[in-house]
Amino acid sequence: MDGLRHQLGASLIVVWAAAGCGAGVDDASLSPLHNTLPSPEALSEAVLAALADGDADTLASLALSELEFRTAVWPDLPSSRPERGVPFDYAWGDLHQKSGNALRRLLARHGGRRYELVRVAFEGEATPYRTYRVHRETVLDLLDEDGETARLALFGSILEREGEFKLFSYVVD
After folding, report:
1. At CA 60, angle to CA 141 and CA 134, rounded to 5?
2. Kind and range of the H or E element at 94?
3. Which residue in 3, 132, 135, 162 has the most C-beta neighbors within 10 A?
């Protein structure tokens, strides 16, 4: 009986160790992104709807939070490597402050205005990381309330992970 118990205990340790090391586990699923949408178009529509309503809270929720940046994004960024010497708090603080400032300017300039999305384009390259991809230089082709066409960069990059999309920030690349 003790031998069986010992083998069972050893087997459990191997299973737990493998799970802890990510063997057979998609580590991206361990750090969820919240308030994602299934396409860049759906995300852009959500931004436009919240912008039309002047809803700063919803707009903020469409961009990465500190927890999402820390757990889902930061580990794969080159600046997170110890030899780079960039502390997480500095990187997040800088991004959060710049994004918040850009969001306030966006609301001041476009809040309350209604736009119809025609097309989402990325004028920059997409950058692949281990668990996600960043689409850069987002530009929206829009129709304004008067039916006039507009091509606007209302927010920055879009992060894509496992078929879900979220704003990286409101900082226009």
Report:
1. 60
2. helix 88-110
3. 135
* Closest-CA residue to 168 (of 86, 112, 102): 102
User: pTM score, two decimals?
Assistant: 0.82
Contact 106, 51 (CB under 8 A): yes
Burial class of residue 29, CB neighbours in 10 A (0-12, 13-18, 19+) = exposed
User: How far apart are the C-alpha atoms of 67 and 33, rounded to whole Å?
Assistant: 9
Closest CA to 38 of 162, 171, 172: 162
Residue with tokens 């009986």: 1
> What are the angstrom distances between the C-alpha of 171 and each of 32, 96, 138?
22, 9, 11
DSSP class of residue 124 equals S
CA distances for 13 relative to 6, 9, 118, 161, angstroms: 11, 6, 54, 31
State pLDDT tens for residues 36-63.
999 999 999 999 999 999 999 999 999 9
Token digits for 97?
A: 């402050």
- The encoded tokens of residue 128 equal 């692949």
Longest dimension (CA), the chain: 81
